[in-house]
Amino acid sequence: MNVNIQQLAVHMGGTPVLEKLDLDVVDGEFLVLLGPSGCGKSTLLHAIAGLIDVEAGAVHIGGRDVTWADPKDRAIGMVFQSYALYPTMNVERNMSFGLRVAGTPKAEITQRVARAAKMLQLEALLARKPAQLSGGQRQRVAIGRALVREAQVFLFDEPLSNLDAKLRTELRRELKALHRELGATMIYVTHDQVEAMTLATRVAVMRGGRIQQVGTPGEVYARPANMFVAGFLGSPSMNFIDGEVSAGGAEPGLQAILGIRPEHLALHAAGGGRPEAEITLVEAMGAHEVVWLDLQGHRLAAIAPAAGTHQIGDRVGVQMDLDRASVFDPVSQERIDLRAGAFRHRTR
Ligand SMILES: Nc1ncnc2c1ncn2[C@@H]1O[C@H](COP(=O)(O)OP(=O)(O)O)[C@@H](O)[C@H]1O
Ligand SMILES: [Mg+2]
Fold it and tell me: Is 81 in the pocket of ligand 1 (CB under 6 A)?
């Protein structure tokens, strides 16, 4: 089912948290809401789920106006960061609780729980209590609870952030596989850019209650709509260099900020006619190294193969792949659709 949000406004404790927010989630997609802590991601998810009242605007799920519908009438399943399992019930009863309350026939409950348990590899654990499960298994049970309700739209609020790094990667892969298998619409909240890039069919980047850009992970990474999106995605962050872009001929250049990712800088021996920089720090990352540079007062990060040849204090020639750079307006910080071909950085 698609989820359509129009001009949504939500106030919390009298202050606006979301304002005039529009978002179209396409049937069957995995949409990730990505943004820093406090930007309103959970609030938006709660508004879709019907857990909070909205000030203005509308929420449609599957074409139906559910702005004022009860959470249980929205065909949604929600999975939170905390698992919220009943400690005294075993896995089977935790998963089936909602169905039993709703009076679903016993045979159907058994069948649905068996199917969900198989998908989530919980079959061997059905008799266990939550205390006898690992964090990853508990989160699978929480997902199972949403699965057995045969939700059409799944809402996830940072479901992996309580897990250690290895489990997080594992469960991330399983979630992606589950999405493929179910074909259901998923809306997933996270502040973790790696989760967003790996899980999403599309990412909506949020800041201060507003959606900054919606696009495929590739689009938002390669063509960020503004400097916030550009800086939020990628590690180390995109380099920003102020200077000017010449409009061609003898005309004065246009003040601009060049945004170039660390992997789009290549380092060469000094003296080849390229802009020269001094290496200020080298961070070994295993597969590659991050080389920090001072280019005439501009601090830049470059990603280089882990050859171990770069030393602090060395001078290098810097080659920028300007075809893959972005150009931003220094005042509005918005992307300008200009070719970076003739960029000149400011000398400091
Ligand atoms: N119950 C509340 N009362 C007042 N302000 C709230 C309440 N809940 C959230 N907020 C505020 O709303 C903003 C968005 O919160 P939230 O949606 O939880 O952000 P996120 O999930 O992106 O971290 C924050 O500034 C937060 O302080
Ligand atoms: Mg939150």
Answer: no
